Amino acid sequence: MAAEPLSNGAAYQSVPESYVLPGDKRPGSSPSSAAAIPVVDLGGDDPDRIVKQIMGAGREFGFFQVINHGVPGQVMGEMMSSAEEFFGLPTEEKMVLYSTDSKKLPRFHTSIGNDQEKLLYWRDCLKLGCYPLEQFRHQWPQKPARLRAALEAYTTAVRAVALRLLRLTAAGLGLDEGHFEGELTAGPVIMNVNHYVPCPEPSLTMGLAPHCDPNVVTVLADNGVRGLQARQRGSGGGWVDVEPLPGALVVNFGHQMEVVSNGALRGGEHRVVTNARAARTSLATFVMPAMGCAVAAAPGMVPDGEAPRYRAFTYQEFMGAYTAAIGDRDAVLARFQNKD
């Protein structure tokens, strides 16, 4: 079901029928949980404190915000304003990049973005290959003119933050600090530049359905408009608003972290609700394994005499299952659970 990108049109007075979700897929009432996504301060000189905060957040949510992360405010600001400028380009300039081919980069699309979609989600997306820079730099959009320089600076800085967080996480799990370096992070860094135009009836649709990311770790920045929600482990599994802190980065673990940690850390399940008053733009940067990477519980994560929760697999095999399950957390993990 190919659809016209939402950012191509004028302001919507009602939700087009193709974006109206069945009742069981709608967001329901607003989250009532008083819980808040943990905030990890990467400043200071107490790594044990930082590690403890990451582990606590990883167990409860698979989500946390980071402050004092070292990415300059100017770098974040240039990237965000360039992204917002892209979605404001004339339709004919954006549509040069439009495609329903999920393997194409760069790629502009709406909803999830393939012809097999039964349901459409209230989201436009510019998907970019970002790193290695020399592999993707020549593909980047030429408009807006400042996007290329902004993307290079932002990708470099955010990837460094992600790798630092993975070293701290490895230490918290009792693993070698470099456990996540190498094949587990050797895949390309991909960015989804998401844009959610104001929605006249937020109760009828969703920006993105509940899912976990398939990769190891995702780093996200947004323009300060609310919409992202994370599911809390236990306590009925309620949804919690991720209140964007100015200048912070939002971090969530993906499925591969849950497998490598043998369930000690949670893949952060999340969804996006729509906003009636303001457009939301977010930059989701995915650090991924190489396709041929063999993924399994790390040594020391499985108690003696027990089988790991999940069998070993290649990342390519996992992505096949993830695509088939349309990202459904439980359905994906069930494919790889040990039955012993």
TrEMBL record:
GO terms for molecular function: metal ion binding; oxidoreductase activity. Residues 28-37 have a biased composition (Low complexity). It comes from Panicum hallii var. hallii. It comes from the Eukaryota. Belongs to the iron/ascorbate-dependent oxidoreductase family. Keywords: Iron, Metal-binding, Oxidoreductase. This is Fe2OG dioxygenase domain-containing protein. Residues 18-37 are annotated as: Disordered. Coiled coil: none annotated. InterPro entries: DIOX_N, IPNS-like_FE2OG_OXY, IPNS-like_sf, Oxoglu/Fe-dep_dioxygenase_dom, Plant_2OG-oxidoreductases. Residues 185-289 form the Fe2OG dioxygenase domain.
